[in-house]
Amino acid sequence: MKNSKVIEKMTLKEKASLASGLDFWQTPKIDRLGIPAMFLSDGPHGVRKQADESDHLGLNPSIPATCFPTAVAMANSWNVGLGEKLGKALGEEARSMGINVILGPGMNIKRNPLCGRNFEYFSEDPYLSGKMAESYVKGIQSNGISACLKHFACNNQEARRMVYDSVLDERTLREIYLTGFEIAIKNAKPLTIMSAYNRLNGEYCNENSHLLKDILRDEWGFDGMVVSDWGANNDRVKALIAGGNLEMPTSKGETNEDIIRAIEDGNLDEKILDNNVDEYLNVLNETSRALENKEEYDKDLHHEIARSCAEECMVLLKNSQGILPLRKDDKVAAIGSFFIEPRYQGAGSSIVNPTKLVAFKDLATGAAFDLIGVEEGYNRYGKKNTSLNKKALELAKRADIILYAMGLDEVSEAEGLDRQNMKIKDNQIELLNELKALGKKIVLVISCGSAIEMSFDEVADAVLYTSLAGQAGAEALLNILSGKVNPSGKLTESFPFSYNDEPTNEGYPFMGRIVPYREGIYVGYRYFDKNNIALKYPFGYGLSYSSFEYSNLEVSESGITLDVTNTSDIDGMEVVELYIGKSDSKIFRAKKELKGFAKPFIKAHETVRVAIPFDDYSFRFFNVKENCFSVEKGRYEIYVGKSIDNIVLTGSIMKDGIDASGIYNEEEMPHYYTGSIKDVDDNEFRVLLGHEIPSMDIPFIKKNRINVDYNTTVMELRYARGWTGRCFAWGIRTAEKLLRLVGKRQLANTLIMGMFHNPMRGLSRMSGGMISWNQLNALIIMFNGHFFKGFRAFMKASKERKHREKKMKEVEA
Questions:
Q1: Residue-by-residue DSSP string for 423-486
Q2: 736 pLDDT higher than 90
Q3: DSSP string for 702-718
Q4: Which of 42, 55, 229, 457 is the catalytic position?
Q5: pTM of the model
Q6: Is 681 a known active-site residue?
């Protein structure tokens, strides 16, 4: 241990105190030993350090910081150098605010497009997610502070996120959901990892030894700190044993006492606590040194970085007859709510208070085309408004070209709840059809953080997908529309024609006790490609104002090289994608998988030689028989493409390895070999798992009644035995409906996020000590039908809490 001398001087109580937070964002300090506090802060796409009372829901405003493009946008750039540049700027801002650990990037796989937090994540592909996360971590940690990869692992839906159990086979876990983390951890060495809320194959992630010890520390060599997601702690002692270093936020010392009691009773070896403290101090010491040299950052420069990032993030999906870029003499009408009030980030704990926010309507004088006016056009939340429609149509009649902004509103994509569908609000589509009836050319500008159904774009001449492009997104948009910037983004998730085409469309989000990952490895394009399902816009797709040709592919043991020629008159960047497949494999596989990419800048009519190396992830698969990664011997197909569906060069290579025969029995799992995973039944899923499928149902003790425990959610209290529990759940549901009725949509969503899917333990753990564990126990007694017994216990626990707080204040004084 690096810190053995100082740890030897600590009392047991002091060591235990470093295993949990002091308040919502800080850890305790120990003045007599010169140990400072650690400050952690949200920050996947911008720092969110709150000046006033802290919360995890984005309710209270934070200190102004640059709002960079969200992860979903940045991934569309396919530019790891740009990701590192963003990370460096993010780290500079965090360091200037005295932050030790910035909680990002998020890198969960986009298993389903309805996940409410998809805007915080990079991709449906683990390799691309890992490379982008690696770049962020390198940039952030170049400032001496810590990045924090999250949420480890398989946190792929928001509904019931603190209690559900992600049930999946080991191969799917390792190849799809952990590979991105592995890449970032091995290559960028983040100092901190955040464990997820959910269970993983029966164990909460924060106390899952297989995840935190066997894989993270023993196999990958991670030697940093694991922090729980806020309120994710279930059993503090189990978490400590598994490798969960820090519980956040504070429990007001209650879980510290659990640790002390376990050691005194002989149920926990004090050496485990010592090692936990040592790992925590390593991160604290390294980051605290960096904070000794805090410097102010250049707000204007960081805004320019945000703009340059946004310019590479936007994806040109359609450009009929080269309508874009717009010409100087084009008379253009801009219509849409998002031109008035930009949609530039998601909602929840990642909300950034931007240093500067630019709306498209404010840029009219700087347009390189004739922008004759801007109108709101519609209510972005879906309410019909004929007055707005009329004004928009009147403006459109005077224009040659209509810029029409569409997208998802702020309350549709938020932490804590999942989207209900993949659709744009009807009133936006209705106005689009009215505009088309005028006979004008239409350019659609789409703002959202995840895939949507886009059949409406058939009436448009051009479509530009901005994603959630941060505070400078409007400036980047104007530069692309005017031709000052050549678009170079490509999609990092599949856009199907219909949500029904999705592999996990049935029953998502799952509302039972488990979430069965029946689809196995067939996530995103792996499923669509295997089953030859046509897509509206495929993974890796994106257009440019330039045109490119690929030629002269060479495949060697070290990688591939090829020529890319810009055949146009416009300089541009092109994303070159490498996919690898094995059509004669003895195991079931996707047809092809992304294994590398490059993004060269190529001047007009010039050719560059592009190299994409193979690496440790190029040919491997997870061998469930040997419990390790292996390479199957034989011939592999090499595909180079402009998207997963547009392969322009092919080759092959022979690799040494193992004979994969016998790892799976095709007769027992035929649908995994064909990719028809919607036909997988319980027996086939059981074979994939290698064990019985856990019960999916909420355990009712009798009709419509359950026994309330620590992991019963507020939503489930409607089935509580005690009338107090049912009334509590009714009150939350009623408050949410009333808030929506009076137009407080954001607050209504936050109520759901903060309460609806929260388990009982969360009422205490997320309260910052306002509800003690004994008070929670008393509430559970009441919710289970013993009102008077519970009420007496609650009053007693309340007195104990007040006495405890009084003693703590006296000690602090």
A1: PPPHHHHHHHHHHHTTT-EEEEEEE-SS----GGGGG-SEEEE--S--TTHHHHHHHHHHTSS-
A2: no
A3: ETTEE---TT-BTGGGG
A4: 229
A5: 0.96
A6: no
